Amino acid sequence: MKTNGLQAEKRRKVVLSVVFAVIAILWVYPVVLVVINSFKVNTFVKTNTFAIPAGEMNAGFANFVKGMTFGNYPFVKSALFSLIITVVSTALILICTAMTGWYIARVDDKFCRIVYLLCVFSMVVPFQMVMFTLSKTADVLKLNTPWTIPIIYLGFGAGLAIFMFTGFVKGVPREIEEAAAIDGCGPVRTFFSIVLPILKPTLISVGILEIMWIWNDYLLPYLVLDRTKFMTIPIHIQYLKGSYGTVDLGATMALILMSIIPVIVFYLTCQKHIIKGVAAGAVKG
């Protein structure tokens, strides 16, 4: 009887392994197509989409060169703006939401609970509901530059971050902060010297999620930024068009590949911290 149970468990694991392997292949396959077609001559991208680039189909690195030099707006400038927006927005989200989560968890009065519920509710509000009023408000308040758009990202990224930070802080003993207060630490010093280092797992996981979101975001910068002066990488790729709206798919695939490689490497390097931080914020408290 025990042997039959072990065999059934083994078969179940084999079936699950096969199912998840198929799902993984389906998930990775579009990325593989991007890689293949980024090295292919534009004509063959349309006619031989699934073929391996070889012989006359192989464009080498010509697509990458063309994509980076196409038009009057340099790709390096777009990459720089994407980097600035991502770094500043992520830093702003982390520091502000960590403070907010700590305050909500420690004060825990009626006002804080209402603020917490509003922040969590903001996670389920579709961006499309507010995008037109947001665009108008951003123009009026002059938030349409790479140096001011992080304020908008703070508003949209706060919900998930506050949810995770609040859950984590509830599992941290108050005695640590009380000991710091006895030693003469004020709230600001207590937060930066005591609480912030303890929040490291959640800081890393939230930071990774926000970086992946902001780096790849297309719609918010497209609506808010002045596209004659500022372009991020997704917007730059969208404008990779010739006369009469023709698109060089080979060059487009090359730029897409260049834009996703940093995110993939970053995610693969830090994915264990995402799981650790999410688990810590969800279980504690």
In short:
The protein has two domains: 2-64, no CATH class; 74-283, MetI-like fold (Orthogonal Bundle). Helices cover 74% and strands 0% of the residues.
Map the helices and strands.
Blueprint: H1 2-38, H2 42-47, H3 62-69, H4 75-107, H5 110-121, H6 131-140, H7 149-169, H8 174-182, H9 187-198, H10 200-216, H11 219-224, H12 233-238, H13 249-283
Helix pairs in contact: 1-13, 3-13, 4-5, 4-7, 4-10, 5-7, 7-10, 7-13, 8-9, 10-13
Structural features, described:
The radius of gyration is 24 Å and the shape is globular. α4 (75-107) packs antiparallel against α5 (110-121). It has 13 helices and no strands. The protein has 285 residues and is mainly α. The two termini are 42 Å apart. It has 2 domains: 2-64, no CATH class; 74-283, Orthogonal Bundle (MetI-like fold).
Considering the chains and any ligands shown, give keywords for the structure.
0% strand; mainly alpha; 285 residues; single chain; globular; MetI-like fold; 2 domains
- The CATH homologous superfamily of the largest domain is named MetI-like
CATH architecture of the largest domain: Orthogonal Bundle
Q: N-to-C SSE series?
A: HHHHHHHHHHHHH
Low-confidence regions? 281-285
Sum up the overall morphology in one term: globular
Q: Average the pLDDT over all residues and give the rounded result.
A: 84
What is the name of the CATH class of the largest domain?
Mainly Alpha
| Largest sheet composition | none
Question: Would you give the CATH topology of the largest domain?
Answer: MetI-like fold
- Count of DSSP strands: 0
Number of domains: 2
Beta-sheet strand percentage?
A: under 5%
Helix/strand-derived category reads mainly alpha
Distance between the termini: 42 Å
Based on CA atoms alone, the radius of gyration comes out at 24 Å
Helix fraction, binned, reads over 70%
Quickly count the helices. Answer: 13
